[in-house]
Amino acid sequence: MSPVPISQINTGHIDDVQELRKAKPTLVPERFVRDATERPTLQLANRSPIACVAHDHDSYEVPIIDFSKLMKVDKDEGLWRAEISKLKRACQDWGFFQVVNHGIDLSLVEGIEEVAKEFFMLPLEEKQRYPMVAGTVQGYGQAFVFSEDQKLDWCNMFALGVEPQFIRNPKLWPKNPPKFSGTVEDYSREVRKLCQNLLNSIAITLGLKEGTFNEMFGVGVQAIRMNYYPPCSRPDLVLGLSPHSDGSALTVLQQGKGSSVGLQILKDTKWVSVQPVPNALVINIGDTLEVLTNGKYKSVEHRAVTHKEKDRLSIVTFYAPSYEVEIGPLPEMVDEINHPCTYRRYNHGEYSKHYVTSKLQGKKTLDFAKIIN
């Protein structure tokens, strides 16, 4: 989330979707209407996840990982080995999983949701005191918009750089709601621990030393983004968030309690909805881990859809290496005969800059890292 503005970007007029919904509940401006090939169907957008796939829905249930077993809370070696094995399959076959018993206090999980919702419900004039400048990804507005004819997402975003301190823009941290900043600090600290512990477990699934990723990452870069998706009169025409993979190492998603089902992942060429599990957090592999594992664990394309009657809130944390770190496939992940190196080495700060200055377009940003034969 390197705050690197691009000069002379003409994004054209961008409607605030909450205000649009209030003033003209049935209107969907042309900039939000997707080309026919990109549109979700009403079935995908508004029915249960089981209804989103035509065959053998059991095979499309996102894996659930019990974090307490990874941490050996029960001091049971057998349970730990079984959970490590489940984690390995989840990373290899899905790139997405839900974590239960994650150790983050429920009051904090509820608290971050409360202040996020309070922020989005503020008057527009107050939210616009923290604008997301074109070409950046911090503040309030829409990120990843670079031209006046680019299709827009049916979503309002508020994003902040959290760690290390130098990526923060203090002017963008709101005074209202009063508990906002403190809650973000406390929540981010706990999510950071979760990411670091998960990276240790993921290293073990790869046969690596437990601390491999955390030692390599240095002072990891962490950012938080809150997404609010108002209801949309034509959810079959719009997307809440364009298809993309994440540039992070790990992404942690909290789905708002009572929100519509909106997260979809591309699995076996089908868009599959992720049903929220109570008090669980959704984890996904980012581009950085795909490169480090030489494609053994892949980042996965995902998107958000909207609902005709219900709104949706999500809170997303991105965790990645320090900008100074050089990234490339780990030697243990390369076998010149069976698994030749498919990604080049590069500076993570350069990739981060490339990612935030590109529009969301599937996994296209990862082309930056690929070796072209």
Walkthrough of the structure:
The structure is a single chain. The protein has 10 helices and 14 strands. With 373 residues, the protein is α+β, with helices and mostly antiparallel strands. The strands form 3 sheets. An 8-stranded mixed β-sheet has the order 1-2-10-7-12-5-4-3. Strand 8 (263-267) and strand 9 (270-273) form a beta hairpin. Helix 5 packs across helix 7. It starts with 16 loop residues before the first helix and ends in a 17-residue tail after the last helix. Belongs to the iron/ascorbate-dependent oxidoreductase family. It holds the Pfam family 2OG-FeII_Oxy. InterPro entries: DIOX_N, IPNS-like_FE2OG_OXY, IPNS-like_sf, Oxoglu/Fe-dep_dioxygenase_dom, Plant_2OG-oxidoreductases. It comes from Linum tenue.
Q: Report the count of strand segments.
A: 14
* Biggest sheet overview: 8 strands, mixed
Proportion of helical residues: 25-40%
Whole-Å distance between the termini?
A: 30 Å
Poorly predicted regions are 1-6, 44-59
Secondary structure category: alpha+beta
User: What's the helix count?
Assistant: 10
Which sequence of SSEs, written as H and E, runs from N to C? Answer: HHEHHEHHEEHHEEEEEEHEEEEH
Within the largest sheet, what's the order of strands?
1-2-10-7-12-5-4-3
InterPro entries: DIOX_N (IPR026992), IPNS-like_FE2OG_OXY (IPR044861), IPNS-like_sf (IPR027443), Oxoglu/Fe-dep_dioxygenase_dom (IPR005123), Plant_2OG-oxidoreductases (IPR050295)
Keywords: Iron, Metal-binding, Oxidoreductase, Vitamin C
Domain Fe2OG dioxygenase: 212-321
Pfam family, one: DIOX_N
